[in-house]
Write a structure and sequence with these properties.
Helix content: 25-40%
Strand order of the largest sheet: 3-2-1-4-5-7-6
Number of helices: 9
Bound molecules: S-adenosylmethionine
CATH architecture: 3-Layer(aba) Sandwich
CATH superfamily: Vaccinia Virus protein VP39
Largest sheet: 7 strands, mixed
Length: 246
């Protein structure tokens, strides 16, 4: 598929997205991963002292009224912002809206967002781009910068998820299907942001937390840390240049 093709017109994109949807539905049936279970809550609590948590705290004092949560899962991050921002979420998992009827969650592909241009003050996509197949990454990014008015925030995992090892052992593709080093992500995202009138405002590389899910994972993380640590997530905040604001 041509990387610059229009998502709405592409049959290739449709079939890729159907495959993605089937993948996430299957995984959720096996385990309550990715936003609908205990693991997700543990993972979010590991954010207590991190950049993402501080960023959302800082947003409270900024003049941000509307937000879109891309790949919102079970809405755990929407819960963090919903008291001070009107937030909507989208997720490819068909049952996502039913899981949290109290939140405005839509079943929608990130590669084809059904919102007008400049609809949200901030678009955020957390632990997200590593789940988007490389063929679709530019479609997703263009859509995000199209519907964002002021800020786009990505938090991107740079390593395999714990559950991915089990999938790989079964010969299945990992959920973290699109792993790249930080500079490669910048090479993909920066030009799309720039074309939409945004530039990079903040960047942050976050190490994986030492505490994992269970003793084995925690010990593994301690050993990795002793060997020099490992980088877990890349955070990127893009802001629309003031001269380009409507
Ligand atoms: C690791 S979870 C992150 C959940 C949430 N953003 C958070 O940080 O708590 C990734 C989510 O992206 C969703 N997802 C994957 N591909 C997607 C796509 N193309 N469009 C929308 N959502 C997608 C998955 O269903 C899953 O809920």
């Amino acid at each position: 598929m041509d990387q610059d093709s229009n998502p709405q017109d592409s049959a290739d994109l449709q079939s890729l997205m159907q495959a993605e949807q089937a993948k996430y539905s299957q995984v959720r049936e096996r385990k309550p991963l990715y936003g609908f279970g205990k693991r997700q809550v543990q993972w979010l609590s590991a954010r207590d002292n991190n950049f993402t948590r501080s960023f959302f705290d800082a947003l409270r004092s900024a003049d941000i009224m509307t937000a879109l949560d891309v790949g919102c899962g079970g809405g755990t991050v929407m819960d963090l912002v919903k008291d001070h921002v009107q937030v909507q979420g989208v997720d490819i998992y068909p049952d996502a809206p039913n899981q949290r009827p109290d939140l405005r969650i839509h079943h929608m592909n990130a590669a084809s967002l059904e919102f007008d241009d400049d609809s949200f003050d901030i678009v955020y996509h957390l632990d997200g781009m590593e789940h988007i197949p490389a063929e679709l990454e530019r479609c997703v990014l263009r859509e995000e910068f199209r519907v964002a008015r002021r800020l786009v925030f990505h938090e991107i995992a740079l390593v395999l998820a714990a559950g991915d090892r089990a999938l790989l052992a079964e010969g299945k593709p990992p959920l973290h299907t699109n792993l790249k080093p930080p500079d490669e992500w910048r090479r993909v995202i920066d030009p799309i942001a720039e074309k939409a009138g945004f530039s990079l405002k903040l960047t942050y590389l976050e190490a994986m937390p030492v505490l994992g899910e269970g003793l084995r994972s925690t010990l593994g993380n301690i050993v990795r840390r002793l060997r020099g640590g490992r980088i877990g997530r890349l955070c990127l905040v893009y802001e629309r240049a003031p001269t380009r604001q409507p």
